[in-house]
Amino acid sequence: MNTRILLIPFCVVCLCESSVAQHEPLKTDSQEYKDAYELIFDAEARAKKAETLLLQDGKREPKDLNARELSLLCRVYNEIFDPKKQMEMSRLLWGKAPNDPQATRWMSNSYRNLHRQDGNDSAGIIKFVDDALSRDLGVRRELLILKARAVLRQEKGITDAQRRVTVSDLLIESCGEPTDSSPMDGLESSPEFLMDHDSEFTRYFSTAEREALKVRMKAAAKKK
After folding, report:
1. Distance separating alpha carbons of residues 23 and 37, to the nearest angstrom
2. What is the DSSP track for 132-194?
3. Which of 63, 68, 74, 91 stands the most exposed, by the fewest C-beta atoms within 10 Å?
4. What's the pLDDT at 222?
5. Segments making up each domain of the chain, as ranges
6. What distance separates the 2 farthest-apart alpha carbons in the chain?
7. Backbone phi, then psi, for 36, in 5-degree steps?
8. pTM of the full predicted structure?
């Protein structure tokens, strides 16, 4: 019997640093270096340039922008973390095109950023969502999730048992609604993401509660 020995070469893997500290521009650096540095590292400067372009250096008012431009301006203020300005633009976008999925998304994002900066406004969020749902405006799935977050933070007029039931019901109902056309938006509102990766819900519900909720949410998703 001939025995063949197979020699499997080892692969040598070189581990490289993912990034190297870059020197900030000096007065003596070329303008090209300064501009390139800003493009790569200074997100705030890029965002402010976008703001200047959209508003034509003060010649246009935000109310004059179309929905797509307003959505981009929302991103500008999100990038530089100016929640109040972002909410102002989000409300303009919502008033102009409430059924544009971006309008719902930016209202939700703005409320979350305002919460981080100014604290709880559960009552205001719940009022906004209930009004939108009653008028059949916006992306229903995302509005229900936004309301679930608000109820989760609600401090008065609700017991913990009521909160658990209400939040669970809202999340289950949201899964019965169609997702947005964007694959990422569908992923972020999926039962797995909300129960396993969304910090607000994962902190609140126990592991057993989350697993049980996922089953009910998936069942609701199959019925839509």
Report:
1. 9
2. HHHTT-S-HHHHHHHHHHHHHH--SS--HHHHHHHHHHHHHHHHTSPPPSSHHHHHHTSHHHH
3. 63
4. 87
5. 40-119, 125-224
6. 88
7. -65, -40
8. 0.79
Question: What are the distances in angstroms from CA 135 to CA 107, 114, 127, 183, 204?
Answer: 16, 25, 12, 27, 31
The residue written with tokens 């679930």 in the block is: 148
- What token pair was written down for 143? 């509005």
Q: At what angle are helices 160-175 and 140-153 packed, to 10 degrees?
A: 170
Nearest alpha carbon to residue 105 among 150, 48, 146: 146
C-alpha to C-alpha distance for 104 and 143, rounded to whole angstroms: 7
Percent of the chain whose predicted confidence (pLDDT) is above 90:
63
Alpha-carbon span 141 to 224, nearest angstrom = 12
The DSSP 8-state label assigned to residue 66 in this structure reads: -
| Dist CA 209 CA 186 (whole Å) | 22
CA nearest to 43, candidates 79, 81, 83, 84: 79
Place 184 in a pLDDT band, splitting at 50, 70 and 90: low
Q: Which residues of 151-174 are buried (b: 16+ CB within 10 A; e: fewer)?
A: bbebeeeeeeeebbebbbebbbbb
Single-letter amino acid code for the residue at 214? K
Q: What is the pLDDT of residues 7-45, one digit of tens each?
A: 444 444 434 444 566 778 898 999 888 888 887 888 888
